[in-house]
Fold this sequence. Notes:
Blueprint: E1 7-15, E2 26-34, H1 40-50, H2 52-58, E3 64-70, E4 83-85, E5 88-93
Antiparallel strand pairs: 1-2, 1-3, 2-5, 4-5
Amino acid sequence: MPSEKHHYAKVLLNDNMPVDDSVTGHEIQLIVGSPLKLVESALVEFAMEFTKHMRVNQGWNTVQVVVEPMEFQELPPLGKPSHTEAEQRTWIVE
């Protein structure tokens, strides 16, 4: 369950390489919440490591990462976190 006291960021990873006959590629969207505001480079590093097995299994060739801060009020329904490390919570958004 998200906490109003945490700082949140949306981390969007995508591979814009063609898949079959489309150019959409792959996409993974994470929401990371932490009591401390995390710098963008830390969020990118975490997201790359956290999603590495998913990206390898899907055959990603390139990775583009976009990090956007989010307010608590902007969060979609999240449910149980996909990953918890200390007080940092991470959700994979589908």
